[in-house]
# Entry
Amino acid sequence: MSRARSNLVACLCKNSATKTATSVLNGVNSLLGGNKVNRLEKENAQLQREVEDLNEQIERLHTDMQKLKDNHTRELNRTNEQHQKEVSNLKRLLDKAYRWFPSFKRFLNMERECLECGFNMEQTDKLLHGQRINYSGWLHSTEYRRNSLANNVTAQVIRDEKRFLFLHINGMPIDKWFREQLGLGQTEIQKGIRL
# Structure
């Protein structure tokens, strides 16, 4: 019986300890305000749900951004392919034009030379139509990498018997005109001196 009694005492002690702990918790809860703890727990749960919703929204945004990026890449590739096809077509047409009209390429080269020398587009068009123009200003030599002042000169593009085009200034080929303007003699030209 003493054993049963000691078990009963131990059980009563445990119950008493449990009751004491519960009453302490209740006391702490009442000190902190039971409603306040409950309210904070509810707010915490609500915030957790909002965080989960925001995480889902972020994930959807990442997915949407990836789709937009993929679409942009596809569109860019399609545009580049289309551009390459157009460039290829233009090159084929230009090659045909060169074959059908051999002087076409010569005119393009002469246009580039006139523009590089310093003539504007309107003057270049007149020169390519065989017209003479009066010019005052600076002319640039790509061969000598220098500029020379041209004061009231006459410029004209002349076609030779082989239908080649040459730019003349005051009736002489432009390279000869530049040599005179830059004071280059035959010895400097033969030595390859570039100013």
User: Anything to note?
Assistant: The CA atoms of residues 27 and 33 lie 9 Å apart. The two ends are 128 Å apart (CA to CA). The longest helix spans residues 34-100.
